[in-house]
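Usage

Read records sequentially. Each one opens with the input sequence:
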Amino acid sequence: MEAYLHAHSGYFDAIAEGERLNPRTVPVPTDVAVEQLFVSPPEQMIVPILATRPWLSRRGRKIEFARRDAENRWLTSVFRPHYARV
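and closes with the structure output:
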């Protein structure tokens, strides 16, 4: 990333001078009533039931360490050329 930014030093100049980050005019407020800006709260709120012992309600899952290790090694081999250039 740093090498790309050093090669393209003016990359952020167009963004910094853009209309969104550096507006040239002040936005005009619309004639909207304050009541229209806010939504009234719901009539009934559904609250979740609290578990007294949450550690009993969660199920564990089987982890295949050999498969996970093989996937991590594959990812390393795929992305290694990109890391070697930095």
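Summary fields computed downstream for this record:
- The chain has a mean pLDDT of 79.
- The chain has five helices and no strands.
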